[in-house]
Design goal:
The structure is a single chain. Strand 4 and strand 5 form a beta hairpin. The protein is globular and about 45 Å long. It has helices at residues 42-49, 93-104, 109-119, 135-147, 165-180; strands at residues 3-13, 16-27, 31-35, 57-64, 67-68, 78-81, 153-157, 184-188, 200-203. The longest helix is centred in the last third of the chain and has 16 residues, at 165-180. It contains 5 helices and 9 strands. By secondary structure, it is an alpha/beta fold. The protein has one domain: P-loop containing nucleotide triphosphate hydrolases (Rossmann fold, 3-Layer(aba) Sandwich), CATH 3.40.50.
């Protein structure tokens, strides 16, 4: 069972303090909602949890099968869906995923690509250029990219942004599956009621 431990983490940009002394621990099957006003630091915290940004203080440790994941491998064991995560609009969804698989040196890429495209409901449009997609379909490509490496930790920044009812149902099903598979899920949201659906809540403004 994976475990995510955040110990006394703090971060700032110049004189702007986002958060400090932030500690939380999650075990497989648990979900955490991160809340706060726009600009409070939710997205920054998720980037730190994803291992793509080093905090100014404190540590983030991801344990898998009783062993700490090295910092260099941490981003490879996580999936991040966020507005700042882009896709190449001149490529098809399948080509985007093939490029990502090549960059991450993922084995068995073609089979895995088919699996995640089906999981996010894009099989029928997989070979169309992303530029022809609606904003909701582009969001689905981001989900496919996040799931490609079969991560143990999934980080969702405003998870239902740009999604229609069917897309929101897809996210709900994904959350249920993640819990059932004893994986880790962190969601950043300021949507009323969204945080209440998760096991734990962390309010950024409580750590200043």
């Amino acid at each position: 069972m994976p475990i995510l431990t955040v110990d006394q983490v703090g971060h700032y940009f110049g004189p702007l303090l986002l958060f400090r002394d932030l500690s939380v621990s999650l075990s497989g099957g648990e979900t955490l909602a991160v809340t706060g006003a726009n600009g409070a630091g939710k997205s920054t915290l998720l980037r730190i949890l994803a291992g793509v940004l080093t905090p100014r203080s404190g540590t983030v440790t991801l344990m898998v099968e009783g062993t700490a994941v090295p910092d260099s491998e941490h981003p490879l064991r996580t999936g991040l869906v966020a507005p700042a995560v882009g896709v190449y609009e001149d490529l098809t969804a399948r080509e985007n995923l093939r490029f990502l698989a090549w960059a991450r040196r993922l084995p068995g890429a073609d089979s895995r690509i088919d699996t995640v495209l089906d999981r996010v409901g894009l099989t029928g449009r997989a070979d169309d250029r992303v530029a022809t997609y609606s904003s909701g379909m582009q969001q689905r490509v981001k989900y496919a990219a996040a799931l490609l490496a079969d991560p143990v930790l999934l980080l969702l920044d405003e998870p239902v942004a740009n999604l229609d009812a069917a897309g929101r149902d897809m996210v709900d099903a994904l959350v249920r599956d993640w819990r059932a598979q004893d994986r880790l899920l962190v969601v950043a949201t300021n949507r009323p009621g969204e945080a209440d659906r998760h096991d734990r809540r962390l309010r950024i403004e409580d750590h200043r």
